[in-house]
Model the fold of this input.
Amino acid sequence: MRTDTGVQLHHLLKQLTEALMKAVIVTEELRRATAAEIGLNARFGNTTSLPNTGTVNGCPIVDESTFAVHWKGKTVVLKNTRQFRLMYRLARNPNQYVTHLDLLHDVWENEDLAIATVRSVARHLRDRLRRGGLQELAAAIVGHNGHYTLSIN
Done:
């Protein structure tokens, strides 16, 4: 495959991913609104059967088009930062540990940085999520011996 074709395909895949993420958010909002309109909660007597706005299978939605994290009805805009890219990388494979070397490769694009850099950005990401009201999501970002995960149960 030619480089320019590969770049174009990569760009198109990124646009498709962003469109699908938006569609998931809108679908969840429509499902909730429809359920409320027809009294689905009262009929089944249980609101837990409905998904939480801003989650897919309990995981946060990380929106590349707005550089925001949506989770349990709240949104935190991280802007185009290392914090956002770290969150995006961890959310891509929740409950799986990622080594600091893989994070340096994926988030920092192989820059020659120390492990302390990953720790610092993870700490700032947790702080930003807490300030945005996502304390539980901040606590789900777990680092241990140079490995990080988004621990969503």
